[in-house]
Amino acid sequence: MAASKPSHFTVCIIMCMTLLLSLCCSSAFNTKDYADALEKSILFFEGQRSGKLPSNQRLTWRSDSGLSDGSGYHVDLVGGYYDAGDNVKFGLPMAFTTTLLSWSIIEFGSLMENQIETARSAVRWSADYLLKAATATPNTLYVQVGDPNKDHQCWERPEDMDTPRNVYKVSPQNPGSDVAGETAAALAAASMVFKDSDPSYSTKLLQTAMKVFDFADSYRGSYSDSLGSVVCPFYCSYSGYNDELLWGASWIHRASQEKSYLAYIQSNGHTMGADDDDYSFSWDDKRVGTKVLLAQSFFESNTQEFQPYKAHSDNYICSLIPGTSSFQAQYTPGGLLYKASESNLQYVTSTAFLLLTYAKYLGSNSGVAECGSLTLTSDKLIALAKKQVDYILGDNPEKMSYMVGFGEKYPLHVHHRGSSLPSVHDHPSRIGCNDGFKYLYSSSPNPNVLAGAILGGPDNKDNFADNRNDYQQSEPATYINAPFVGALAFLAANT
């Protein structure tokens, strides 16, 4: 008689026990490993730079690109970052990247030691661009350079690109409260990064953040509605714009301590997602991040108005921990948090960062996360975050590091134009739009190592194909790396 198959419930119990046991095990990595990964995680941003590259550029296979961006519209939009493996500058993910890079430094910059200057430089590269985008024309925010539909019809180096560099903006007539709210958050968070090292720059960032936030709040609407197929399906604002308005106000409040922003949060929070439990944090949905950010105000001031944000943050944390009454996260058999088939590691890195940030807030205030009758100390949060970080760095069933250039085995076929095509130094003559596709479909490894890039990652069974044409698994993105910088800084200093 054949043995009966284990029930779905039994499988879940076994997976949860496996995950809990793995949290207790000794680490596969030491302080030196995390420090190496931290350096590479910041270095990656140099591979995403658009504009005139500085003399200290370390990824030397990249060269200048997009030097006339905005000129056809009589604005200077040179600089900033390409979001992923393409050559478009998308404002919403770039601003979110800037916010998360800044938050990484705000919370864990004191632990970055010799990497703090390169981390600040990574923030400044995009903050400079966002400043220009926000101040070039009154009552206007430039939110994108490049036609993504045309761009995606080509496979060419950013140094060669000849696709239309159209410029897109939001205005009172065509609002974009989501992208403007995130830009305000980015500028405010960046202002905190430079408060001591460059006070005048910091002031300019914060003042601009306030103006952009007023614009976002005064002319409400989603940029997906205003710009349509230019931003969708690439970076549609699926969650709407209320989360970005509350997020932007929260960052400006933290950066400025001005009471008017606290009043805004208190007056508008209930209609902007403050009462919702949410379980995902990404370039599109900021609700969980806002609650963790505002929970810090509760710990610092013990102001009861902020208590609900602490409660919602607890609910989010509890949803991730096997054994709690509100556990609802999904993990792969190897223990990786799994949210989506496309670019899943963006959710893993953002979750790891929030776990460590909230653990810091709890630890500094002798607090715990309350999960019904169960309480979680900061150590439990740190252990789960560490498990996710270690998985990404190679402690997984594939024994594959999903950070390019880190460890003995990492992906070689990265879905990234500049990395997959020969550099202009090795192939000075231009490679045309269609001529580049042979490199996309080639079985050879990428000729240029995009060091530090974290890719989309494995599927829900821990499988990874290392296939350049599978963008869901093999494409990097700035917003995957940004929160990982903070997580690695913490572990490098606390392992």
From TrEMBL:
Reactions performed catalytically: Endohydrolysis of (1->4)-beta-D-glucosidic linkages in cellulose, lichenin and cereal beta-D-glucans
**What does UniProt give as the signal peptide span?**
1-28
Entry annotated with the keyword Signal: yes
| Known EC number | 3.2.1.4
Keyword annotations for this protein, in alphabetical order, are: Carbohydrate metabolism, Cellulose degradation, Glycosidase, Hydrolase, Polysaccharide degradation, Signal
UniProt-recorded Gene Ontology molecular function terms: cellulase activity
Does Cell cycle count among this protein's keywords? no
Identify which residues the record assigns to the active site: 415, 466, 475
Domain Glycoside hydrolase family stretches? 34-488
Instruction: Tell me which PANTHER family the record gives.
Output: ENDO-1,4-BETA-GLUCANASE
Query: What is the recorded name of this protein?
Result: Endoglucanase
